[in-house]
Amino acid sequence: MKNIPNERRDFLKKTLAGSALLTVGGILPGFSPKSYAKIIGANEKVRVGVMGVNSRGLALASNYALQPNCEVVSISDVDSRAAEKCINTVNDIQKSKPANTPDFRKALENKNMDALVIAAPDHWHAPAAILASKAGKHVYLEKPCSHNPHEGEMLIKAAKKYKNVIQMGNQRRSWPNVMAAIKEVHSGAIGRPYFVKGWYTNNRASIGVGKETAVPSWLDYELWQGPAPRRAYKDNLIHYNWHWLWNWGTGEALNNGTHMLDLMRWGLQVEYPNRVTSSGGRYRYKDDWETPDTQIINLQFDNNTAMSWEGRSCNGRTNEGSSVGVIFYGETGSLQIGEGNTYTIYGLDNKVIKEVKNDFVIDPRNKMNPSQGLDALHIQNFFDAIKKGTPLASEIVGGHQSTLLAQLGNIAYRSEGTLHIDSTNGHIKNNKEAEKLWKREYQKGWEPTI
Questions:
Q1: Which of 98, 219, 240, 258 has its CA 20 to 30 A from that of 277?
Q2: In angstroms, what CA-CA distances link 285 with 225, 254, 278, 296, 367?
Q3: Over the chain (450 residues), what is each successive 10-residue block's mean pLDDT?
Q4: How far apart are CA 412 and CA 435, in angstroms?
Q5: Count of alpha carbons within 13 angstroms of residue 261, beta-carbon side
Q6: Closest CA to 184 of 79, 328, 286
Q7: 3-class secondary structure for the chain?
């Protein structure tokens, strides 16, 4: 843990004690299996089910299975091929086969399951989390926590009513050097921070123009759509392109922007903005893609600070040498958090004052995702919150607040105007057209309720 300030090191010792000090494949250097076994509660496994395992969910299921204090007991996916692949992968890791439960609602009936991990499409995030809460399960919910602002507020009410743990999957909240970087911002390393910019760049291909066709035999399309109003199946929709269609997805702003907006809000120590604007469009290709492929979201706050996020889905030119990141600008310097577990502090003369590189040990056996070891810290924080009452790195109130920043940006874009916001609760003021986008329409019979 070199390069981590003493106070941050002490904090990590307390909040990541014992089981949290794990890589995805075993124990961190200095922690032997024998010493780990002595930790109170180390052998009490948290039993989880995973919903949505085609891509991100497969990575999550693998990561959970790799945790010594966890057992994946159920896999739920509307794609029978994805479910089979994930079940075999998990079985290879933990040497016990999780149940194949295509409908996650059936999995929630299992009294021996402690938590549900949700990595389904965005339109299912909040409704599934609410159903899990009602069933007495804890929830690990991938970002964004909701498809629209109203659902985010419903999640907060659900957690309050059912008193369960709901952790949003903005994993950087648990990455040690990112935590240290935010601590530097808060402690005055760059003076008073007053502006921060974030970005995401990629070079995504066109999704083309889909053709209506028969639903494949391996797909339960009715359950996949779930709470969303029904649309005909097209051959370019599943598995990823739904991100760019408003009926199911939320665009790049919530797909990747949520991560950076969360760091920006965390660093500036703000909750809700007072003013939001957004510009952009679908510029690169003419196809079925509805959300912006190029977008800028600007937000202002009551404490005389502002932030700006830029998304470029179809042009991968990096910003500041990084495809994703944030820069905090302050009165005496700036601080950049890069793609990984790194940060750099610059003076006003642009000279490097301090550079912190990633020193976290990644298990070489993990071939799926190099950040899995870091993400395991977020998972262990989730477990500690369940078993010990440890504060969450990303509880649902903060998760909603960060998700809302991106949602307000999308609403400003779609309503083509400036949003004036009540900074006490994030609600839109005096704009009936924009307020229509606060909620969504649901398929009859699938409406989420608390």
A1: 240
A2: 26, 21, 20, 18, 33
A3: 41 37 31 31 81 96 96 98 98 97 98 98 98 98 98 98 98 96 98 98 98 98 98 97 98 98 98 98 98 98 98 97 97 95 97 93 53 89 97 98 98 97 98 97 98
A4: 10
A5: 33
A6: 328
A7: CCCCCHHHHHHHHHHCCHHHCECCCCECCCCCHHHHHCCCCCCCCEEEEEECCCCHHHHHHHHHHHCCCEEEEEEECCEHHHHHHHHHHHHHHHCCCCEECCCHHHHCCCCCCCEEEECCCHHHHHHHHHHHHHCCCEEEECCCCCCCHHHHHHHHHHHHHHCCCEEECCHHHHCHHHHHHHHHHHCCECECEEEEEEEEECECCCCCCCCECCCCCCECHHHHHCCCCCCCCECCCCCCHHHHCCCCCCHHHHHCHHHHHHHHHHHHCCCCCCEEEEEEECCCCCCCCCCCCEEEEEEEECCCEEEEEEEECECCCCECCECEEEEEEECCEEEEECCCCCEEEEECCCCEEEEECCCCCCCCCCCCCCCHHHHHHHHHHHHHHHHHCCCCCCEHHHHHHHHHHHHHHHHHHHHCCCEEECCCCCCECCCHHHHHHHCCCCCCCCCCCC
- Indicate the length of the chain as a whole number: 450
